[in-house]
Amino acid sequence: MSYRGNECRIYVGNLPPDIRTKDIEDLFYKFGKITFIDLKNRRGPPFAFVEFEDPRDAEDAVHARDGYDYDGYRLRVEFPRGSAPGRGMGPRGRGPPARRSQYRVLVSGLPPSGSWQDLKDHMREAGDVCYADVFKDGTGVVEFLRYEDMKYAVKKLDDSRFRSHEGEVSYIRVREDYSSRSRSRSYSPRRSRGSPTYSPARRSESRSPSRSRSRSN
């Protein structure tokens, strides 16, 4: 098997004895297009290999389903030995994908059961999402690979109906995070100290009224 094939393939262990291929598909279809499921359940404890079309979806599946409680069985989901994911990840393959972007939106109004994977799935309608995370206060961040996808998300997904994996529904607000791109230009004042356009004091003064307006609306 090619290296790319290993990137797309995950191992699923500690499955219940009566598991079926359709059950495996139901567990993993939400993470991306599945190209192959190989269920081994004739001898000994059952296990399976699931192969995705995109290695990024395989990473998402490992993160979301490793340790997942399925019918009283705590699933073991990982990349097969000798394979490695295509993108940087945390220890043992855990954690959201490490690829980051300056094209970020801020999301609010998420239901308590909304996960980063739910948010990523929802925002994929706007384009290629490279990073998503959620917080306990019902807010989240989403980063896109392309500027136009970020703008489309703000235009089309603001006040959209969001549904979590547990069925909770809410209407979320989506707005552009201008600070993510302004931070990438933060070195400019040091290089051109004489330029009033990038004065840190002036930028902070110009931002404070906009923040007060947003709270009053």
TrEMBL record:
It is found in: Nucleus. One of its GO terms (biological process) is mRNA processing. Residues 178-217 are annotated as: Disordered. Keywords: mRNA processing, mRNA splicing, Nucleus, Repeat, RNA-binding. The keyword Transferase does not apply. SUPFAM superfamilies: RNA-binding domain, RBD. SMART domains: RRM (SM00360). GO terms for cellular component: cytoplasm; nucleus. Residues 8-82, 103-174 form the RRM domain. Residues 182-193 have a biased composition (Basic residues). The keyword Repeat applies. GO terms for molecular function: mRNA binding. Belongs to the splicing factor SR family. This is RRM domain-containing protein. It comes from Ornithodoros moubata.
